[in-house]
Write a structure and sequence with these properties.
Blueprint: H1 2-18, E1 24-28, H2 34-43, E2 48-53, H3 56-65, E3 70-73, E4 85-91, H4 99-112, E5 113-122, H5 125-140, E6 144-147, E7 165-170, H6 173-179, E8 185-196, E9 206-207, E10 212-214, E11 217-224, E12 227-234, H7 238-246
Helix pairs in contact: 1-2
Length: about 260
Amino acid sequence: MPGTYAAAMHVLAETAQRLPAIETVLDLGAGTGAASLACQSVFGSEVRLSLLDDDSALFGEAKAILPDATFIQTDLATKKDLPDADLVILGYCLGELSETDRTAVLERAWNASLKGLVIIEPGTSPAFSRILLMRDLLLKLGGHLAAPCPNSQACPIQSPDWCHFAQRVERSAIHRRLKQGTMGYEDEKFSYLVFSKTPLEPAPGRIVRRPVHKPRLIEICVCQQQKISVQCVTKKDKNQFRAARHANWGDAWAGDGKADLPTL
């Protein structure tokens, strides 16, 4: 749960910057409520939450941390009448559905959303393949890409590469024991989509790799203008170098594209 919560925090923080104010959330395949808990942190404790899942044990954990939420215990694949909400979230659940059910669930989720839809999947190649299919379907349904993509054209990333991001999670002592890990942190890798019901200005670019810091030089790998390129930011441009020093993997990036390394 700490990893999925951290990924949801990253995605929802981006969502809050792109979409209008969110007052109601429908969390599909909610599990222990990690995404809903993140919603309270990002949108405020007054946000009204509805969680849907068919696992009573997981819901027991979710009810303990979200006592004021509404809980709908049912099978996501067969639930036809989803309640409307400003934001609908499908977090780490599409991979559990058949291709037919996945398409039907996504269409119902999109119809239930009043302002936007969020999809979060593991940061793996198979999950990214699902993300691309869902991206195409939502564009056909009239959705407007809010994040992470800076455009709605064909994705420039070529197999065997895939688009994903990472959020670092500090591990407590008990977390290390439960995960049988020795390191004091883990990097939760994830892929995601945020779609808006209304047109909006997309990010100018997106940092798709961890920036590489070198003496007097920072290399920023960016998805921008329908290509993936590495921009070299030097101290000669003080403002952009300052921005690059604080830039992280997954951030929006408005670099001017000068001094590019060869396109990847």
